[in-house]
Amino acid sequence: MSLRPDWLSALAAFESAARHQNFAHAGEELHLTASAVSHHVRKLEARLGVVLFQRHARGVALTAEGRQLADAASTAMADLEGVLGGLRAASDDSDRVRVSTLHSLAYTWLLPRLPLFAAAHPHLRLSFDTEIALTRFDEGGADLAIRHGPGHWPGLSAHLLMGDTLFPVASPAFPGLARITQAAHVARLPLVSDLSRQGWHDWFRAAGVHGTNLDERYSFSDATDALNAAAFGLGAALARERVAAPYLAAKRLLRLPGPGVPARWNYYVVYPAHRPLRPAARVFLDWLLAVPVD
């Protein structure tokens, strides 16, 4: 037996009545009268040649045949709602860009520049996920990621965003800072580090300072936490220029003597190479690559 279009309204009335076990409540849900629901159900019973409900004074109850059809109708409605919800979500998200990035870069470099993007593209919406772990570009996940690394990852397209430079910083109020006049003197201070692959030993080696015992007293997983620790006077932190810029501008941190060492890793914008970017994500990528980095 084929399912004709004119059966759909009767099936919808039946499915609602079966859930509520009540024609009046089904009518309220469907904006119909109880008698209209009853009419749809009777029409369905007549076409199928079976009784779907037992009618009695206190209401209605499904028959065995009615329960069988109710289970199938409920499953079909749930499947339809899932598909419709997915289509609706895809439509609603057409103007949303999902971005994964490091918390340190988002807080100190990206956020101060986002008002420029918002002014140029007020119709687009942005969602950010800040984490250290590498992004998984699952379906429904990030469109773009900003990564700090060597610039090549299997299966990803990578665009250079900017380079970086490392140098030591400390709070201007740190005791005895006036006596720190050369790179070797920095080793006298308690040192704050983060999980960057390029750390204090690399900087002192590049600065020509050797044979010194380093007091790496505090370690943080996030670069902004390390900078905040230095700003609160715990010691000297090895700063990345892009992340430290607002701290230096606000005079919460002071650059210490010694060279700026080019970072071995740079910042890149990446996305899966096997699938095209959605239009909204392409707009944000183009803006990122064009925005002034300094």
From TrEMBL:
The keyword Cell cycle does not apply. It holds the Pfam family LysR_substrate. Residues 1-63 form the HTH lysR-type domain. CDD domains: PBP2_GcdR_TrpI_HvrB_AmpR_like. It comes from the Bacteria. The keyword Chaperone does not apply. Belongs to the LysR transcriptional regulatory family. This is LysR substrate-binding domain-containing protein. It comes from Lysobacter koreensis.
